[in-house]
Amino acid sequence: MGDRSRAHTPTKSGPATRLQVTDLFFRPLFAFFLIELRSRRVIHVGVTRSPSDPRVAQQLREATPYGQAPRDLIRDNDNKFGPCFARVATTSAIEILTTPVHAPRANAICERFLRSVRQECLDHLFIFHEKQLQRVRKRVCRLLQPGTTVSRDGATDS
Questions:
Q1: Structural domain boundaries of the chain?
Q2: Which one, of 46, 53, 103, 48, lies nearest residue 74 by Cα?
Q3: Measured at the alpha carbon of residue 46, what is the angle toward residues 42 and 48, in degrees to the nearest 5?
């Protein structure tokens, strides 16, 4: 199971947020991030064109397989985190903590991660479609993990 099972131990908490990206044809894409607070590792990233409540709830299901869920989940007050999302969190024994309105420091780890994704990657790329953003997000998450260094040729050294 490796690092992924350690990141999902029930004693840890993590923030969840979403990032809106516009593709080359000005269509919105959304990325859902789940980050483990203690190690600041990205546990899960999902990409979708329509971030409805059922779709975001499905992303939470995929991020917490086989009962391996964080104890707490910090999220912002977005309406995409609706009753379906709350139901999945409740059945997974996850306590949802919402950030106060207009308080970006309450979810500072996610905000820093999103800024890094934008500055280091998305500001320099043209995204054509959803699959390309999924490939980019895999690469970016690998590069932005704590303790990972990147050589000039782009290979990662852990």
A1: 2-137
A2: 103
A3: 150
pTM of the model: 0.69
Bridge partners for 96 per DSSP: 73
Rounded to 10 deg, the angle between the 53-63 and 83-91 helix axes is 20
The rounded distance, in Å, linking the Cα atoms of 23 and 25 is 5
Q: How far apart are CA 38 and CA 44, in angstroms?
A: 15
In tens digits, the chain (158 residues) has pLDDT values of 344 443 444 435 567 777 888 888 888 988 888 888 888 888 888 888 888 899 989 988 888 887 788 888 888 888 888 999 999 999 888 898 888 887 777 778 888 888 888 888 888 888 888 888 888 877 877 776 665 544 334 444 44
Structure tokens at 86: 């709350």
Specify the CATH architecture of the domain 2-137: 2-Layer Sandwich (3.30)
